[in-house]
Write a structure and sequence with these properties.
about 750 residues; alpha+beta; about 30% helix; eight-stranded mixed sheet
């Protein structure tokens, strides 16, 4: 037996990545992770390794207030008169891994090796060990992640105020589905929490077959609507008054939000002009920049004089699946929206979020570039119904406009001499070779990049990787967030495998597989994933000759999970819009989110009392152990909860006791629960309290609303739950034991 027995999935929910590096000076894993915590000493060793040497950066992933869990807040450093201290050659920011010499008068850059003079205002003498005497008082020399207050020379203009422009579909479908009512209710409820305080600007544009602008100037008594029916030459009726200060005009904004649903309640207009609406929105805010949030209810067909390619159409064709033309289903058929994103939005610091709530096909593949190249986000609510989706929709809208956000940002990664950044993966626009242009960046966005050898061999003992994000805070302060990793260099392949961060590796592999699927077809993406897994295990067997390390042993399971995941799953059961939305979502996923998405957590709710699961101990919810992701282990008398980071599924066995259902859901039977979306009742039973605690903790860790659906054993909706059982056999993919055995045969 080459591989031995297949190891089980991790038994712990939200298991953190293992720590291989000494913590002092290293950026915390929530901000920055490397796929392996050692760097190959030569290009030949890297080639043999067969897995990507990559970094995943989640720069604004600060812990929620009041839940730091022992992690200190990111320290803020103001260098004052001496300015931000950087290497004068490679522009690396001073960090914990630089060295001071010449009695503290000079410092050596740990990236390029250049000796730099220490400014007089920053000078401090050294102790007997060669360390600055004020070392512990300097956060930038102690912490792996710090923020520098940027001086005026880091600004091309005064910091922009936070600006939010809501572009809302008011067609017949938007009114009838309840979308318009939910949009207005969600924005109204979140108004007091929108970041920026007295600086925040806000505006509204509604559209159907016409465009409707709103004058909300604080001197008015009532909001004024200004309609423009000419789509051939749309214009701004009030070029300077359509964006207003939120604090000054909050009363008028609330009045408008209260009136909009009634104003269009009886609309009979089925068509919309989405492209002219977005172009007009860009014209409204291009002098400031900010976030455009679009709510779409129907497939737009009206274009005016904009190129006819901006009209979307139903182009889903299941006959193309598995063929050479398969990629056309989830790639744009026109460059109109990509051009708009790059030449208008990104250039003028505007980001686009889209809430797609169409009844049927929405052609998301064509809309995705608007979000991707502006670091925006796409939410997909197919066949939106306010009664069913309203609570999740409101939660997602609230997070979209209240989360931590930075404006007019750019991000760059630097690495030690001999290593260079070769490619970025995710949702961004790459300006130049290594500079990411991010009109906005928020706490839910992560980015990945590959590292390659620029030289055949590296002579240094450690490689420094530094990420620098320059952005404007909601409060109008220009800051530079810097994250650092210092990784040892090795010639030993065994070191690479023993320090493998399999979760970060799979995050990058999944993103590159999606790029492959969009370039060619799904089968090529699947082959790429399998090839990476087999090559890595074969290299370890040949070159190391030892048992597969614990982390590397999870690679086959995560690869199998990826092959069964909706992002690259083959077959005809995944609709084009769903695939496009998931691909966009994966592009921004952090390591924790992609791991949950690939390998869901499964909890036995009927056994919580046995492990004290759901109890609150020392202020924290005790999470129960995870069950195997196999239907063979499901008890027909039980109830299980699955979390894949995107939604929660509750599986109810055929013979579950009425008492358990009553204690959990306040229902005597599960007859009407197959495929239903439910809100957990807050009951006074022990089981209800425990489960509500668990669900609340899971939702607190996720960037989306996590709706809860119920499925019954043997019911029509059980297939959705079965798709999460990654250890089971499917029509096209092996079970986990079969996959493990097949890998073993390939390695012999």
């Amino acid at each position: 037996r080459v591989l031995g027995d297949a190891p089980p999935p991790p038994p712990v929910w939200n298991e953190p990545s293992p720590m291989f590096l000494p913590p002092e000076g290293q950026s915390h894993a929530r901000y920055m992770q490397c796929s392996t915590n050692a760097i190959p000493a030569s290009a030949s060793v890297a080639q043999k390794y067969a897995l990507p040497i990559s970094v995943v950066v989640h720069p604004l992933n600060d812990p929620p207030e009041g839940s730091l869990g022992g992690q200190p807040a990111v320290p803020v450093v103001n260098f004052g008169q001496c300015g931000v201290i950087r290497c004068r050659r490679c522009r690396t920011y001073i960090n914990p891994f630089v060295g001071f010499i010449d009695a503290g008068r000079r410092w050596r850059c740990n990236v390029c090796g250049l000796l730099n003079d220490v400014p007089a205002d920053y000078y401090c003498s050294l102790d007997s060990s060669g360390r600055r005497k004020d070392h512990n008082e300097r956060p930038e020399l102690v912490h792996g992640t710090v923020e520098y207050i940027a001086p005026a020379d880091y600004m091309v203009r005064p910091p922009q105020p936070p600006c939010f422009l809501f572009v809302v579909d008011v067609s017949q479908r938007a009114a009838q589905s309840g979308l318009l009512r939910e949009v207005c209710a969600a924005i109204d409820a979140a108004l007091d929490r929108i970041p920026g305080g007295s600086r925040t600007q806000i505006g509204f544009l509604t559209f159907d077959a016409s465009l409707h602008y709103y004058n909300l100037k604080s001197t008015l008594q009532e909001p004024q609507m200004l309609a423009v029916a000419d789509l051939d030459e749309p214009f701004l009726p009030l070029p300077t008054d359509l964006l207003v200060n939120l604090q000054e005009s909050k009363g008028l904004v609330r009045s408008l939000l209260a009136k909009l649903p009634g104003l269009f309640a009886n609309s009979l207009i089925p068509d919309t002009a989405l492209a002219p609406a977005i172009q007009s929105a860009c014209a409204m805010m291009q002098h400031i920049g900010g976030k455009i949030i679009v709510f779409q209810a129907v497939l737009p067909t009206l274009t005016g004089k904009t190129p006819t390619s901006s009209a979307l159409r139903a182009r889903e064709d299941t006959k193309l699946l598995g063929t050479e033309r398969e990629a056309s289903l989830f790639t744009p058929s026109t460059d109109f929206f990509k051009t708009l994103a790059l030449e208008v939005c990104s250039k003028n610091q505007m980001s686009v979020d889209i809430f797609s709530c169409c009844e049927h096909y929405a052609d998301l593949a064509n809309l995705v570039p608007l979000c991707r190249y502006t670091d925006g986000q796409l939410w997909h609510f197919p066949n939106f119904d306010a009664a069913r989706d309203g609570d999740s929709f409101r939660a997602d809208v609230t997070r979209a406009i209240t989360r931590q956000i930075g404006f007019e940002a750019v991000m760059r990664l630097r690495a030690s001499a001999g290593i260079k950044v070769s490619a970025f993966h995710g949702n961004h626009y790459l300006r130049g070779a290594d500079l990411l242009s991010l009109p906005t960046v928020d706490c839910d966005k992560a980015f990945a990049c590959d590292l390659i050898h620029e030289e055949q061999a590296i002579t240094c003992s450690h490689v420094c990787i530094q990420c620098a994000l320059l952005y404007t805070t909601s409060e109008g302060e220009r800051r530079i967030r810097v994250c650092n990793l210092n990784l040892p260099v090795t010639n030993n392949l065994a070191d690479l495998y023993s320090t493998l961060d399999v979760r970060a590796t799979m995050n990058v592999l999944l993103k590159t597989a999606i790029e492959q699927a969009q370039a060619t077809k799904i089968t090529d993406a699947r082959s790429r994933l399998q090839s990476a897994c087999v090559s890595a295990l074969r290299t370890h067997r040949i070159m190391c000759g030892t048992a597969v390390p614990e982390q590397a042993a999870l690679l086959p399971l995560l690869t199998l999970a990826a092959l069964k995941n909706v992002a690259v799953r083959d077959g005809v059961d995944v609709r084009a819009d769903e695939r496009s939305a998931v691909m966009m979502q994966v592009g921004s996923m952090s390591v924790a989110m992609s791991t949950a998405f690939l390998l869901p957590s499964l909890f036995a709710l009927h056994r919580l009392a046995e492990c004290n699961g759901g109890a609150v101990v020392d202020g924290a919810v005790v999470m129960p152990p995870c069950c195997r992701l196999s239907s063979e282990g499901l008890d027909a008398h039980g109830v299980y909860l699955a979390d894949n980071g995107v939604c929660l599924l509750m599986w109810i066995g055929k013979t579950v006791s009425p008492q358990l259902l009553n204690d959990l859901l306040n229902l005597p039977s599960a007859d009407r629960l197959d495929g239903a979306k439910v809100n957990l009742p807050q009951l006074q039973t022990d089981l209800s309290v425990r489960v509500n605690n668990i669900v609340a903790r899971i939702r607190a860790e996720r960037p989306t609303a996590l709706p809860l659906y119920t499925v019954r054993q043997g019911g029509a909706a059980e297939g959705r739950f079965a798709a999460l059982m990654v250890e089971d056999r499917t029509l096209t993919t092996m079970s986990y034991p079969e996959w493990w055995q097949a890998l073993g045969r390939q390695l012999q």
